[in-house]
């Protein structure tokens, strides 16, 4: 009589460092079941692990603990050391939690649209992002340079290295000049607006948080906000296009003070998202930002003028 082994297994991704005498576990988690997501995750993890002198391993097992133990057995045999084991510096949260091999199905990606405003030295821009079903891809349409590759790389790396999720969707960003033909000078200053609209379109930031705000800043690979070329004239350009509240790199606030414009300094993408999500860029008394009112959806308000709903609830 034969028996069937009904123990279900799945693939786990293990990240860590083999020192030759022990293994330092950095993380272990089930691999995405979607093949495209799996490929993207593995590519990113391999780059990060290589930079930190580590490596990525794949194991099929019934649980996270079983996957790590299987890898340890193989590394121990290769080392020839009976004492080979996990190092004391290992991160054991997921290992000790012993995650089962069949977790809930992957969460569906949110889809949507969002828009805001930004500028270069010579032209204001409407920045619109969409997140739609399809093969994960990131395109920027309307960037006034020969190739948008550098912009895409900065924005994607800045989002991921800020601890945020890059949407596994078809992401398209459209840049439309507001008043003039697009300029190739200072286009890195569009990075912050591009990143924020992508995060809003993919559901990581409520789209109405962008209401009433414009933003100018280059996004570093680590998520820091850097000063783009000729920021002073860039802020003047977007102010001339009607913006009254502008997020800029915090280190340049004193250099871009413009009459009639409220300037808010941010040092990182995370800080910019906190300003937007907290509606700190909106005027005090904004009815849409007050929990005990029924004002919805959000409409653009500025320090110099509130929308009709806010005027009715809390007039100047």
Model description:
The protein has 316 residues and is α/β, with parallel strands linked by helices. The protein has eight helices and twelve strands. Strands 4-5-7-6 form a four-stranded mixed sheet. Strands 2-1-3 form a three-stranded antiparallel sheet. A hairpin with a 5-residue loop joins β9 and β10. The longest helix has 17 residues. The radius of gyration is 24 Å and the shape is elongated. The N terminus is likely disordered.
Short description:
By secondary structure, the protein is an alpha/beta fold. The chain has eight helices and twelve strands. Helix 4 packs across helix 5.
What ranges have pLDDT less than 50 throughout 5 or more consecutive residues? Answer: 1-6
Strand-residue proportion: 15-25%
Rounded mean pLDDT score: 83
Sketch the major β-sheet. 4 strands, mixed
Share of helical residues: 25-40%
Number of helices: 8
Structural class: alpha/beta
**In sequence order, what are the helices and strands, one letter per element?**
EEHEHHEEEHEHEEEHEEHH
Q: Tally of extended strands?
A: 12
Structural topology:
Elements: E1 10-18, E2 23-30, H1 35-51, E3 55-61, H2 64-79, H3 93-97, E4 112-119, E5 124-132, E6 137-141, H4 149-160, E7 170-177, H5 191-201, E8 214-215, E9 218-219, E10 225-226, H6 231-240, E11 245-249, E12 262-266, H7 269-277, H8 308-313
């Amino acid at each position: 009589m034969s028996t069937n082994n009904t123990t279900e297994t799945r693939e786990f991704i293990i990240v860590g460092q083999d020192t030759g005498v022990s293994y330092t576990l950095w993380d272990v988690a089930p691999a995405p079941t979607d093949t495209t997501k799996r490929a993207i995750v593995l590519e990113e993890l391999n780059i990060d692990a290589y930079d930190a002198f580590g490596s990525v391993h794949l194991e099929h097992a019934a649980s996270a603990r079983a996957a790590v133990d299987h890898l340890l057995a193989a590394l121990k045999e290769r080392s020839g050391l009976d004492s080979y084991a996990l190092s004391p510096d290992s991160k054991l949260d997921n290992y000790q939690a012993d995650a089962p091999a069949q977790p809930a199905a992957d969460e569906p990606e949110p889809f949507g649209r969002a828009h805001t405003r930004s500028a270069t030295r010579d032209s204001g821009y409407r920045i619109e992002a969409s997140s739609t079903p399809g093969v994960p891809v990131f395109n920027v349409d309307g960037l006034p340079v020969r190739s948008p590759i550098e912009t895409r790389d900065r924005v994607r790396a800045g989002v991921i290295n800020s601890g945020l999720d890059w949407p596994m969707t078809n992401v398209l960003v459209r840049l439309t000049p507001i008043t003039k033909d697009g300029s190739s000078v200072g286009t890195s200053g569009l990075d912050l607006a591009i990143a924020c609209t992508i995060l809003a379109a993919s559901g990581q930031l409520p789209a109405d948080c962008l209401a009433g705000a414009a933003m100018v800043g280059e996004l570093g690979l680590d998520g820091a906000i850097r000063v783009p070329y000729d920021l002073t004239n860039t802020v003047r350009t977007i102010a001339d296009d009607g913006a009254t509240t502008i997020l800029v790199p915090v280190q340049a606030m004193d250099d871009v003070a413009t009459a009639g414009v409220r300037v808010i300094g941010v040092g990182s993408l995370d800080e910019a998202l906190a300003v937007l999500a907290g509606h700190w860029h909106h005027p005090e008394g904004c009815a849409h930002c007050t929990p005990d009112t029924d004002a919805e959806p959000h409409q653009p308000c500025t320090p110099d003028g509130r929308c009709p709903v806010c005027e009715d609830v809390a007039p100047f």
